[in-house]
Design goal:
With about 400 residues, this protein is an all-alpha fold. The chain is built from 17 helices and no strands.
Length: about 400
Amino acid sequence: MPAALLALALGAFGIGTTEFVIVGLLPELADDLSVSIPSAGMLVTGYALGVVVGAPLMTAAGNRLPRKTMLLLLMGVFVAGNALCALAPGYGVLMAGRLVAALCHGAFFGVGSVVAAGLVAPERRASAVALMFTGLTLANVLGVPLGTMLGQQFGWRSTFWAVTALGAAGMLGITALVPRQARDTGKGLRAELAVFRLPQVWLALTMTTLGFAGVFASFTYLAPMMTGLAGFSASAVSWLLVLFGLGLTVGNVVGGRAADRALMPTLYLVLGSLTLVLAVFAFTSGNRITAAVTIAVFGAVGFATVPPLQMRVMQKAQGAPALASAANIAAFNLGNALGASLSGAAIDHGLGYTAPNWIGAGLAATGLGVALFSGALDRRSALRPRSVPGPAVPELSDREQPGRHDDHARYS
């Protein structure tokens, strides 16, 4: 794999760390800023909303820029947002810094996915995207625990300074390793937005939303589920999260390789497996051993969905893969909020801590149904010529033949 993918993965590592590390620092933040824990928790929600809004807007705003330049600008926004968090004198400025940092999140992964896919031969694109997303998965395994420890020892501001440094390192890596690309003069904003008239693009976004809603319906309440049902101590939850993170790292890589071989069958398999694992988790969550094993499998299956879901929307948005890919990142975050809110409502209504697993299974099953419907539409239209609004991007077409080595030049 090209070294440029390592630079993209480093940027993803920093972004993933800043998104989730605040969960481990809520008590310190609440105490230092004299706010309640729920108010401090709004810093997580605010970030997610910033991603949903910023992903399509930032990508559309930079649609005429060379993609390397766009990546550098996005990382610059990330550095500025986290530095603002580190310097924040109060809660309001900290929230503003979180929102600024979140603006770059979706656009970075959207543009980065297209750049990553363009660095390799067609038959290795999903694996390249998966390697970039490995930075995000490693953020959950290493970045979040280490950032939490740093903040607990030296204050929460030290964590944000560390993340700021990661962003600066990512900028240096992109500058040195990502190939220079010419400015894109073939598409305007209207052509970019036109892909959202394609039904298959919306079906792909719906798959993402429902699939990740299934994941976060259960994952959000993993800690109280394990302490309340399985009997783990609160201190053991960190190790269970590491176990989940190791599983998702493996699943991300395997999902990318499988999607390279057969994209839609991989989607059917992982969404079906996710449905099954979550249903099983409702029964295994009451025993320490079976719960721990299920958590590892859950992490692997849950994040095996990421590369095929990202590749599916890029494949179907041939006129604007970067914008649609960024919108897909927004769909991931929308799914996070949807799954967590549905499970939270179920718990509030006294349905217990097994309810999130059943809700997650139902959401994942619905996502599988959407995937099957989308695949059926593909088969129906297989003999008809494709009509794509706006200039086509042949490098993401199903018909492209492997063996081309100048892909990165055409992803500009």
